[in-house]
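Justification of resources, computational component.

The compute hours requested in this renewal are based largely on the per-chain cost of generating structure records like the one below. Each record pairs the submitted sequence with a full structure-token output. That output is archived, and it is also reused by downstream analysis tasks.
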Amino acid sequence: MIAVKYFGAIAEKTNSKSEEFLFSELSLSQLIDSLEKKYQLSSMTFSIAVNKTIITNAENCMLKNNDEVALLPPFAGG
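The structure output for this chain reads:
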């Protein structure tokens, strides 16, 4: 199982703070493609973290059972 957490505007768009997928092994780019088809996220800007580490290249990232993926909107400071 792979857990996906949504934050900020992404949580609003998906109408959920998280969901789980029953995959034991999957590439991050496959997961993002699946989420794009389900939620039309391409118009949104976000970073992706896997197990609390920001991922810069989704193509080379393989997810495995019990991984946690977070879709993070841009952060604003003040």
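The chain has one domain: 2-72. The helical segments are 8-14, 28-39.
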